[in-house]
Amino acid sequence: MSQALPDYPIRRDSLVFEELENTQEVMVTDNADGSSLSLNLIASSVLESCDGQHSQQDIVEMICETLDADAKLVHQDVTAILEEFSMFGLLQNAE
User: Fold this and answer.
1) What is d(CA 40, CA 26) in angstroms, rounded to the nearest whole number?
2) Which H or E run includes 56?
3) Measuring CA to CA, which residue among 64, 63, 70, 33 is closest to residue 48?
4) How far apart are the C-alpha atoms of 34 and 88, rounded to whole Å?
5) 78-83 long-range contacts, CB within 8 A, separation 24+
6) Spatial CA neighbour of 58 closest among 94, 8, 6, 11
7) What is the Cα Rg of the chain in Å?
8) Strand, helix or coil at 13?
9) What is the DSSP string of 64-94?
10) pLDDT at 94
11) Do the Cβ atoms of 78 and 27 come closer than 8 Å?
12) Mean pLDDT of residues grouped by 10 in the chain (95 residues)?
């Protein structure tokens, strides 16, 4: 049903990040098709970490350190976020 996520996710090269002033959000625009998506700071941090150098576990650990949060819950949230990114076409397809 859902496509397996890569261990080392990579965001599409055509994405541009813009912090929205006076908010806790980041606008991500895909220069390839002009689509855009507003993300909270955690989700945008996850997307920015999708550089092919950080594993899903690395991303979970970074968020746990930053937020002093429970690793199991963060892992579930990161997985859900990555699945949504994949669904919205923000990640490169695994090769």
Assistant:
1) 6
2) helix 56-67
3) 63
4) 13
5) 78/46, 79/5, 81/42, 81/43, 81/46, 82/5, 82/9, 82/46, 82/50, 82/56, 83/2, 83/5
6) 8
7) 13
8) coil
9) HHHHT--HHHHHHHHHHHHHHHHHTT-BPPP
10) 55
11) no
12) 79 94 93 93 95 96 93 96 93 73
Q: What is the pLDDT of residue 3?
A: 62
The answer to whether the pTM exceeds 0.85 is yes
Helix, strand or coil for residue 11? Answer: strand
pLDDT at 1: 39
Domains delineated in the chain: 15-87 (1.10.10.1150)
Structure tokens at 75: 């892992």
Handedness of CA 78, 91, 3, 49 (dihedral sign): negative
DSSP-assigned beta bridge partners for residue 30: 15
Q: What is the DSSP string of 15-52?
A: EEEEEPTTSSEEEEEETTT--EEEEEHHHHHHHHH-BS
Which tokens belong to 80?
């859900």
